[in-house]
Design a protein that fits this description.
Blueprint (H helix, E strand, L loop, with lengths): L1 E5 L2 E3 L5 E8 L7 E7 L6 E7 L3 E4 L7 E6 L4 E6 L8 E9 L2 E4 L3 E5 L2
Parallel strand pairs: 2-11
Antiparallel strand pairs: 1-3, 3-8, 4-5, 4-9, 5-6, 7-8, 9-10, 9-11
Amino acid sequence: VQLQASGGGLVQPGGSLRLSCAMSGFRLDYYAIGWFRQAPGKEREFVASIAGLTSTKYGDSVKGRSTISRDNAQNTAYLQMHNLKPEDTGVYYCVANRRGDNYWGQGTLVTVSS
């Protein structure tokens, strides 16, 4: 399983960003997808997950500001984030889970700064 995260970049506080997680080699709909992030000097933190089409969970730090979704036809999952804050800065990783096995992508850097 290969995952390619993309969509990161520099955004101003209050802005929005959509991250993508493209899966290759396997069918996305076989997997639950999660997003984690890691800020410099901090541990990796859960952001959001989606199982099936509509079963979603969010970390407390992004709840109400983020939406995770998936397009199985495109074999891609997304994380839409709004009202970004400087504390949202970090490397965002997507992970695919099936039957207890996790497959991680390489991460995409999000920097929230004015």
